[in-house]
């Protein structure tokens, strides 16, 4: 088979070929970037948080009226004891903000307390002695807090405060690259000495640059129920719903009139699902766009191939009459489609790169990895060959007797 003959035949249908090339190029550009966006969404949705999400439930209690701090703290201790007594509960704690929540509680952290010194915004978790165990955090350097290091919320931010802090590995590598962070000093609430480093704990929600998502620190603070959310670690993940019902009942039974509702109690996995609901919707929408574009492209390729088969029916009959095999006719149309698809894919890769640069400029998207280009190319080649297969088979079945008929 001579490519010169195929190119000569395509040259007589320039407009149709150009339109098909542009259609393939557009599909290639959009599909490559859409798949990249889907991949980034999926990666974002499945980022590990550092917590044992499968075994954690959270219950928020709303305070109707402000009371004495001593009474509120006493009620908090009563609540913690009642929650800890629920069958199937391994540990209970209270924290100022929850993972995958609606708020971000952070502060600027620096290596010096000099005025106008550069700082990095880091999320802060305040909790009692059971917080690390309830979350299932893993210590990789230093130690946990000692019992005598826990303070009140007011003492944390008091003048001259020197409350110790536990930070994440990512934060330690940011501030003290290549060094052990244990024993080092940072400045967040006064002077804070790092006593430990945990493997991972992320922000409650995305805030700031992507690299700061794992910058977090824990402070030893005893909070009241009015200042945070109860976290319960269950022994068996299958009992989470039962534990939530028992926790709500326990809180309603023992304590003053408060806002206690199942709307404010859920599993940490449910909180993650709700937080990433928009990301899932975006991913499915992009999947739909990709499928629609590929279907339209396949229909365009198949339709044009069918038109050409009908136009060349007598020519095909002549080739069959002078000895061309069915496989020769089939291979001719598949090769013709391969050449058109290749032109469209090459142009599409250029457009895909340009579209990615545009998205990087306006939406802070990462650079499109190079391996997306061959994946997109192979996908469109396969779709093109499958789309042209039906018309090509019909062409290969044209009998030689067609050559003897009048045009």
From TrEMBL:
InterPro entries: ABC3_permease_C, MacB_PCD, Macrolide_Exporter_MacB
Coiled coil: none
Key words, A-Z: Cell membrane, Membrane, Transmembrane, Transmembrane helix
Segment forming the signal sequence: none
Keyword Membrane tagged: yes
Membrane topology note: Multi-pass membrane protein
Subcellular location: Cell membrane
All copies of domain MacB-like periplasmic core, residue ranges: 34-247
Aminoacyl-tRNA synthetase in keyword set: no
TM ranges: 15-38, 282-310, 338-359, 371-389
Family membership noted in the UniProt record: Belongs to the ABC-4 integral membrane protein family.
Name this polypeptide is given: ABC transporter permease
Organism in which the protein naturally occurs: Rhodanobacter lycopersici
